[in-house]
Amino acid sequence: MSVLTLLDPVVGLAHDAVAALAAHLPTALAIVLFTVAVRLLLHPLARSAARGERVRARLAPQLAALGRKHKDRPEKLREATAELYRAEGASPFAGCLPMLAQLPFFTVMYRLFTTPNDLLGATLFGVPLGLHPTGAGRPAELLVFAAVFALLAVLGWLGFRRARRAVTDPAAPGAAFAPYLSYGTALFALVLPLAGALYLLTTTAWTLAERAWLQRGTDPTTETGATKETRPTKKAGPTKKAGPKTETRPTKKAGATKGTEKA
């Protein structure tokens, strides 16, 4: 017996919810609305994660300094990092909450779309929702899959750009590779039927829009520790004040005294 079969009662509830919507709406639209409803329920966790990300960005210079100071003492580094987060009243794992909370939902939806059921018999523009990309052959099927994967690729590119701008320490292990994980959704959709790809498209679009809204008014490039560390260099320009131009004023007065002598 597969471990996933333990989720079958929850999968049944998800099926009933989508089927209830599909009784009044197209099944594809019902899947989208059900996904949006679940993401709305998870939104408080996303807000908490956004606050955690802002704290980590603010602490990036101090974390980098601790890393340099205790680079040969991992245990001391962990203690100092924990103490720093404790002083800020934050957790280094706050940003993982939405991802961890989505895992059960993702598993349920995966089970729902990979197990034969009546929902997969519905169609999107004439293409069965249970059809896999490898089984597409008709022009209409190829066109629908091409559109879905094109949208997933665009979302992956947007996520890649945002993740690359948000890197606080380019020298950290995996920092250069991490932004490319944004394209993983499009790759994973290759092994799912059309219904699963539609779910991934909806939840990925929601994630990007949600992050953009929660981080509105802040630029990821200005939240990194690198930019904060470079700020003192702007203040290190006291030469403008140290080189007072008021010394040239006596020359003007001297010119005035010459005028008085001629008079």
Concise account of the structure shown:
The chain has 263 residues and is mainly alpha-helical. It is 67% helix and 2% strand.
What is the strand tally?
2
The biggest sheet amounts to: 2 strands, antiparallel
Q: Which word captures the global form?
A: elongated
Lateral arrangement of strands in the main beta sheet: 1-2
Q: What series of H and E elements makes up the topology?
A: HHHHHEEHHHHHHH
**Mean of pLDDT:** 79
Instruction: Please bin the fraction of helical residues.
Output: 55-70%
Number of helices: 12
The SS-based structural class is: mainly alpha
Uncertain segments of ≥5 residues (pLDDT<50)?
220-237, 239-248, 250-263
Radius of gyration (CA) equals 29 Å
DSSP strand content: under 5%
End-to-end span in angstroms? 113 Å
Characterise this structure.
- This protein is mainly alpha-helical and 263 residues long.
- It is 67% helix and 2% strand.
- It is built from 12 helices and 2 strands; from the N terminus they run αααααββααααααα.
- A two-stranded antiparallel sheet has the order 1-2.
- The chain is elongated.
Give the secondary structure arrangement, pairings included:
Layout: H1 8-22, H2 27-41, H3 43-69, H4 74-88, H5 97-114, E1 123-124, E2 127-128, H6 139-165, H7 184-188, H8 194-214, H9 220-223, H10 225-235, H11 239-242, H12 249-262
Antiparallel strand pairs: 1-2
Helix pairs in contact: 1-2, 1-5, 2-8, 3-4, 3-10, 6-8
Keywords:
single chain, 263 residues, mainly alpha, 2 strands, elongated, disordered C terminus
